Amino acid sequence: MAFSETFPLQITLPTSSFLDIGTVVAITVFVSLLCACIVIGHLLEENRWANESITALLLGLVSGVVVLLFSKGQSSRILVFNEDLFFIYLLPPIIFNAGFQVKKKQFFENFSVILLHGIFGTIISFCLISLGAMFLFRRIGVTALKLQDYLAIGAILSATDSVCTLQVLNQEETPFLYSVVFGEGVVNDATSIVLFNAVQSIDFRNIDVITALNLLWTFLYLFFTSTALGIAVGLLSAYGIKTLYFGRHSTDREVAIVLLLAYLSYMIAELLNLSGILTVFFCGIVMSHYTWHNVTASSRITTKHAFATISFIAETFIFLYVGMDALDIDKWKGSHASVGTSIAVSSTLLALVLIGRAAFVFPIANIYNCTVKREGDKIEVRKQFIIWWAGLMRGAVTIALSYNQFTETGGSSSTEHSLMITSTIIVVLFSTVVFGSITKPLIGAVMLRHPKLPSSDETDFTSLEDLQLSFIDKGGPSNNSSNHPITRRSSLSMLIKYPTSTVHYFWRKFDDKFMRPVFGGRVFVPLATSSPTSPRDGTS
Amino acid sequence: MAFSETFPLQITLPTSSFLDIGTVVAITVFVSLLCACIVIGHLLEENRWANESITALLLGLVSGVVVLLFSKGQSSRILVFNEDLFFIYLLPPIIFNAGFQVKKKQFFENFSVILLHGIFGTIISFCLISLGAMFLFRRIGVTALKLQDYLAIGAILSATDSVCTLQVLNQEETPFLYSVVFGEGVVNDATSIVLFNAVQSIDFRNIDVITALNLLWTFLYLFFTSTALGIAVGLLSAYGIKTLYFGRHSTDREVAIVLLLAYLSYMIAELLNLSGILTVFFCGIVMSHYTWHNVTASSRITTKHAFATISFIAETFIFLYVGMDALDIDKWKGSHASVGTSIAVSSTLLALVLIGRAAFVFPIANIYNCTVKREGDKIEVRKQFIIWWAGLMRGAVTIALSYNQFTETGGSSSTEHSLMITSTIIVVLFSTVVFGSITKPLIGAVMLRHPKLPSSDETDFTSLEDLQLSFIDKGGPSNNSSNHPITRRSSLSMLIKYPTSTVHYFWRKFDDKFMRPVFGGRVFVPLATSSPTSPRDGTS
């Protein structure tokens, strides 16, 4: 019942204001910087090297320097990174909006690739980074870390930054890459957090097969229950709004209830110790598929843009925050490490991140290619390269986990732990600024050499209806030349031949027959002309 | 630099979640209750006794009881009312939205009445309640309060609850009453907070004429600088958005910058020790007049509904919060007062609120009526009655100020001070629930007896353009029969005859010639078809 602790009473100064001057200054600075980020980001729109994340990060760094100079290197309290702020207020809207705006068809078509990368990839990366750190750190001279610390480092650095990816890849231009890299990012967040929690809670003196199985069971349990919860809340919102029809009286109430239920799904998941990220992501997907079609036209435009705006502000805020926090003088003082050691540790970690990601992206893609028969569905080498590269950025999740592991109550005490925190910050800054700024031109260059996108990127139906039409026209989910009507036998052979598309087709039939009549959706609400994922209103 | 104190680190439990379980529980409870409020409020929409404020307040009370029972009367930490939360996060969006959605013409036409009520009325009410409490409390047996406490009580109970008014009166049905009562509420908030600050900071051992003049000067300074700041930020946003045209690339950035600048105006005002409420209110007015017309069509719909939604959630949250907080067991224990004393003090305060408001509403209205020549412009007795009644509700500002005055650091210590807090809570609960639920039927009854609204409520031009047209058609701001063209001489005589409308006319000319070409607005953006105050998109 610590609500008061989250928003503590702060009335100290006998000024005209009731508010604590420090809070007011901090908020004013942050809001001003956010405005500056938006304006600068807008002016740099055409620039191929910069993006909003990098702008915010650099602006945060500059502000950090200014604050340090103003306080003469003493006070750095405006800079303190806070995990609660991040996990309660900033992450949920970003992930929800990602689910709300994601191209559902692309996402589910590539679901197997996404799961392979997000789960097995993260585990491979986790093992490699942990082992690598364990062996290489001793050579540098870092010896005080325990087994648990090394495993935690593996989990911490396996968490990719899906936020930065969203800004670098374009859903319209490269839908396949976007859905794979971003989808992987969401699953990866969940996986690495589960791994991290496992590392923190497992007793390392008694490791056996049962512990490992237990871990696997925990992960599967978390994955499925979190997803189910998200879907349940989404369906509840769709059914409730369809039945009660709030929009009859007030658009604002309709928007409010959608917003609150989305947030509630995250909080309930956290309350049940599930993965709030997965829950809110699937809640977003279900809400965009059903709920969004049940509200009035104004609510549709409002929710679409309001969620995107909140998510955009939260993203920018995080980068600003990380940038400002990077200069927290106490942490740098606490590490007592020479510049050489710092650089050695950071470069080792960076190298491990690069290798750890390469170690799963290329093998998984090639294994996947072996299972796929059609040439166009295969993941080419240059796409593999982009998938590898676009997932190298590390962001706020990494920093939050690092603080959680290496900060003892009341500030980091051990020298080695402080060194780990500063090294994580260096990795995050370097990967975001350097890798991030190279990514856009890199993708441009790779795509320019092969200006025509491969076929799996071209078969981007604008809606599931188009898919169904092409299905009926061609008698199959893809452009094979068979013209037979769909019978039970042919659909069975289709399921074997084109499993994803066939599952899609049957899902669509089920959706039309059972789900939409109950939960609403495109067909049952004649007003709906577009979906939140389509950019057709010409403004997004 | 106390950002970390506002969002303190709270990682204690080794669960799958990084978040403090108390915070998660509190947020989940509040979000669930907010959803319940919206659903119940929606179902009770047709009910004439209930409204969302009352629903939220009662639901908050019930939840408070449940929490008390669960914690066996021990823990009541989920209930603690926090001024920072209120003044930083909840009040600004409510007041901004009020300015953004207020009918500007009505507001400025009744500006003199609003200022009279908001400034002089509040001062009269303040004096009466202070004096009344000073004399009557001694008879009840409450003697330990100092002069400063009595004056604080006057300021605390002079702050009307503009939020509840917004829900009870209807801008479309009774525009005159709405603009007067609501406009008064905004000015009243500012006045009572200024009075309260003055009471807290003045040294009462040396009161003389200079102190009084100083107080007046402070008030005027605050009023004008706060207003000017709000207008400046609003114009800056209009000019910036018109020049940079964020919507070219992204609706979301446009919405984000409008949102952030609005909030920034409040925070800058607080930073400069001005009245953030006045600033953000005028910022909202300017933004709806200029900025809103410079953004894309999607942004226009999104801002209109998103601001209303945020405001709606904040309002509901406040009532929920006040309801839950009312049962905070520590305060009731601390007062040590008998039920009789509690009731006596509360009824005294309630009576003083009733008398204090009557003492300025009726005299001011009658003085105003003497200065007005046209019969239709006069404020009739039944309207005076409604103005008096609609301003009797006391709300979150009252509670926040009461806590500020009567809570010593670490909980209220003195018995008399605790009694004041509990009595304030009783006044707030009683006035909101009882007065609030009677208001709707009361207004209905008063209006039913005189089903036709008086003329000053009928001349509700939907836009300033209509006003100008009627001006040009009729040669004057109202339906007099003169048909002369507007010349310098006749406009001078008009200024004397119909000062408000004439000022309006010249403002409109100035606006068209100098302001709109620079800052944008309806005329200069052909896409704009309605204004945020008009309900024409059929959904609000």
Question: Characteristics of this structure?
Answer:
homodimer; 540 residues; Na+/H+ antiporter like fold; 2 domains; disordered C terminus; sodium transport (chains A, B); Cation/H+ exchanger transmembrane domain-containing protein (chains A, B); transmembrane (chains A, B)
Beta-strand content estimate of chain A: under 5%
Give unreliable regions of chain A as ranges: 1-17, 451-487, 525-530, 534-540
The percent of residues in helical segments of chain A reads over 70%
Largest sheet geometry of chain A: none
**What is the count of helical runs of chain A?**
22
From the helix content, strand content and strand pairing of chain A, which structural class follows? mainly alpha
* CATH A-level architecture of the largest domain in chain A: Up-down Bundle
Specify the overall morphology of chain A.
globular
Number of separate strands of chain A: 0
Major protein interface: A-B, 96 and 96 residues
Oligomer: homodimer
Membrane topology (chains A, B): Multi-pass membrane protein
Subcellular location (chains A, B): Membrane
GO biological process, one term (chains A, B): sodium ion transport
Catalytic activity (chains A, B): K(+)(in) + H(+)(out) = K(+)(out) + H(+)(in); Na(+)(in) + H(+)(out) = Na(+)(out) + H(+)(in)
